[in-house]
Amino acid sequence: MSLTIREALKFGGLFGATVVAGEEGLDIPIESVSVLEIADRNISHWVLKKQLYITAFYAICDNVEQQKVVIQTLIDYGGCGLVLCYVGTWVQQIDQEIIDLCNEAGFPLIQARQDVSYIEIMNPIQNLLYKENAPALEPNNETGIRNDFLNLIINEENMNVVFQQMNQRLEKRISYYDTYGKIIFSDRDDADIQKEEEYLKYNFNHVLYACSKKGYTVQSIEGKECLIVLIRSQKNLFGLFITDYDETFSEEMEEKLIHPLVVSGSLILRRKNRMADLREKAVQEYAADLLVWNFPSNERAVERGYELGLTILDKNCIVLININSIQQMTSPKVQQEIQDYVKRVLLGKIEEFMKSYNTDNWLALRSDTIILFMDNRDSKIDMKKFCGRLLGLFQGKPNLSVSVGVSNSFTEVTKMPDAYFQAFEAAVIGREHYGENKVIFYDAVYFFQKLRKMGAQDETYEVCQRFIGPVASYDEEHGTELVDTLRILLENNGNTHTAASQMYVHKNTVLQRRNKIIELLGYSPFEMPHLLNFLIVFDILKGK
After folding, report:
1. Of 3.10.105.10, 3.40.1390.20, 1.10.8.60, 3.30.360.10, which CATH number belongs to 5-132?
2. 142-274 in CATH: which number?
3. Confidence (pTM)
């Protein structure tokens, strides 16, 4: 019996989900399931009939018209439904026009539970669908690998050399791609590689579906018949390879070509992924040691960098991107989804942009921060423009808030911990004073940071309390809000209209409170030099 959306709502990540619209389409069979990342009409290139799509509408969460375009495309091309995740985090509320569109077309629109991730929805459905289909290739059996390939994999460290040697021994030109459709290795012509990459960009999901039964498919790429094979084990997908299709293809060819390459590719790419994970962890640990200078000598610090292919002697500036959204989310699963999105979609763009200035620049991702180690000797880079364009990579993505902090330049690598502290303070303190999604240089928060240090002293805190004492005592005795009124008036340059709007009271109420504050203090805190004192007082108290 075919799996329908109605049945899928009874188990796994869709259990407890809400059918928002299109209930009459719940009995349409699901033939495949996929994540919807692209948010424009281009999805028409790879929408599959009876495929269930999962999305959070990251890029268009506040654009109802674009959401309608995407959903209408899914309807027109036969998609069987859409699961919307993290409603209230990205899409704040499903618009009535969206609901009406889905109801009219009988297109199921499902709102997932807030605590459910994409993978928790996809895996149970995929597992059931694969059981219903014919068994896919099972390259986990390493007895099918050619001995010469196995020797290559064991003895050769360079992955490209292994792929090249395998291609030569098979007398084939073959391209290998990762799970994002990015080229890993190819000895095919540049024109062919370009066509393959363009094809995978718009048809990757279609390829996965076409390979779901046998593990391979024959597709026409720019009028040329190509054999596309998934490189996977029973539990993991590592990528795929593409080669010219031979019309003499047979079961014997499957045994001689496909099976050995799938098993070999799985072993190579599994090792590559593990090496990449280990390197990422090593880079994170190295960055952590740099930021506290945890080395027995300067020479050892430099040497460890060389071991990872990283340089530090030419670095003289640190840029820190604080991902505010991760800190602001209370759900660990939503935090993880944002981290995955940043790592999967944005980190590569940041690295590519940064290295376009200097290929020796490097970065490290640490939980909710991205740290850029920059070479800007002799001020060759206009850091304001650089960071402005860097910030632009995050803009246009609602609910993804960041703050960028920039350190002062330094001349000795042992000063990296100070530079990191400066960049961090610029991002965090700058966010409080200048707002989110801004680029802040350390000098802009220097005095704020010094005030915070003053506030840590008991004597300073007691002085601050004495300044607001008469007003605070009156509030405590009469249940008023004069201290908050004073703070908000100061933050808005004494503008009573703006203060009234922020406090949701009438302007005359603010005027009355303002006069009472002056009466209690015996002077106006809104005029110099008293104004400066109270600005300092409230900034110090903000840090408490």
Report:
1. 3.40.1390.20
2. 3.30.450.80
3. 0.61
